[in-house]
Amino acid sequence: MRNIRQQITENLIPVFRRKLSGVDALPQLAVLGLLSGIVTGAVILLFRLAIEWPLEHFLPGAGSENFEQLDILTRGLLPLAGAVGLGILLHKLSIHDRKVGIVHIMERLNYHQGYISFKSAMVQFVAGVTTVVSGQSAGREGPAVHLGAAFSSLFGQWLRLPNNSIRTLVACGCAAAISASFNTPIAGVIFAMEVVMMEYTIAGFTPIILAAVSAAIITQIVYGSEPAFSVPALTMNSLLEIPWILAIAVIIGIAAAAFIHLVDNMGRHHHRPVLLRITAAGLLMVPFAILVPETMGIGYDTVSETIHGELGFWLLLGVGVAKLVITGLSIGLGMPSGVIGPTIFMGATLGGAMGLIGAQIFPELASSVGFYAMLGMGAMMGAVLQAPLAALMALMELTRNPNIILPGMLIITTASLVTSEAFGKKSLFLTILKNQGLSYQNSPVIQALRRVSVGAIMDRSILRTDRELTPDEARKALKSEPKWLLVEGSNGPTALLPAVDLARYLEDTEKQVAEEGIAPPDTVDLMEIPANRRDVAPVQYQATLEEALNEFDSTQAEALYVQRHVAPMIQRVYGVVLQSDIESYYQYRRS
């Protein structure tokens, strides 16, 4: 058994890694996607249990969302106490360690190739549970996405996979988390590629789909096959409703723009102490918890009641606006809570309220309140995240009704356009990144370079050699017919030269000795002979082509030698990469 394990470690895994270096490693990526979904599904089950178990025992009545039945004093003190506790926890952490959520995942993808620490995952787990259990206006999907991405990334790091594969694993974790949270695998796939990765690739679809499906299966074993909401049969009664649907799209688009603007404005206080900001968010939550308790927690019970037409107009309008205000204030001040759940809540309640107005104006034409609530939900999600396709897929999977597609496409795209074009708002996540002084590069060139590891294009025909050799040692070195000679210095490789230059020098020297009768040199100094030498710098085997280009820019090196840690203080060199190799590869793939 031990020999089999050793053989797998020494032979199969390195081959597996090498295959993953390229852009066409579909079978290997499919295996990773499947494993990522299983891991993420298990993590999300644990996360949901950590939220639901204490709430089911603490809150009165049945279920885990009955904050409305708490007495006024408890409702007021609970979010404040939770905020103070969270503030103290985050205050003790470094600025880097307290970053959580989908925005943090996008930052790690853009600046750190998707590497996420175990500590970050644990902070998100505690913070995500605390925000919901303490009654903050929070969602569980954002923290779930962080957890799925983090544990998928850690899985890739444990296997020491190339960075391009770790990026794919992060996307798999994001898709699996959304799939497991809503039981909507298609929406999970589109969300990962449209919102987080901001790219669509054929090779990326397969592992991400497998991750979403496997995560959904894991959660269905525990929670069943029903989606997050029980939705009655919905249909549009008449095409004459289209003008009203467009009017609702404009209203939802304005509300989404106001929400993003509020988060952006409050985010400008990010330089203030985190304990002060989180405590302030808790204090602001107190009057909302007392007067509008529906805004506490995830609020899916209110969403369900809205879909089934059980709430009146003023309550729907009031809780929708209240949720928008308190969620914008809280997230802007740095409360580590998810935004997707509140977005669904806002869209459902505001859409339901507009549906009741339509029923009063056109009672013989208007569709059900639930129909408009679902449309509002999709429109708000699409406008806030600027992800119309993900919102449409979520709407279709939640309703399981193809009749929602046409009006859904109309309201989601219109609301998204109103938010982005009429008010100039980018997606909420990009807005928060910009507020932090960060950006998200997603140009086609950068995306193409991120998909491939240096291991896929490096030249392996190299020979590491000392600077000074005897003529016999030099001839012996050339017998293996290397293309490049990597010259060793006191602190590692210092230069790269073509092996043909050494061969030419030895040939010229032999001819000179024969013709002039002089004594042959005792040593050959590879740094002194006529040769096309290149300055070199190291790059890790896991690095993507984007990282390699950045290394060229920062070091001004003319070549990079690809190395990997194989033991403490020991680096093994696998090949070399020239900048022209990267440019040639990109031109070839593009053509």
Automatic annotation (TrEMBL):
The alphabetical list of record keywords is:
Chloride, Chloride channel, Ion channel, Ion transport, Membrane, Transmembrane, Transmembrane helix, Transport
Q: Which InterPro entries match?
A: Cl-channel_core, ClC, ClC-type_chloride_channel
Q: Which SUPFAM superfamilies does this chain map to?
A: Clc chloride channel
Q: How is this protein positioned relative to the membrane?
A: Multi-pass membrane protein
Q: Where in the cell is it found?
A: Membrane
Q: Where are the transmembrane segments?
A: 29-51, 72-90, 200-222, 242-262, 274-292, 312-332, 344-363, 369-392, 404-424
What is this protein identified as? Answer: Chloride channel protein
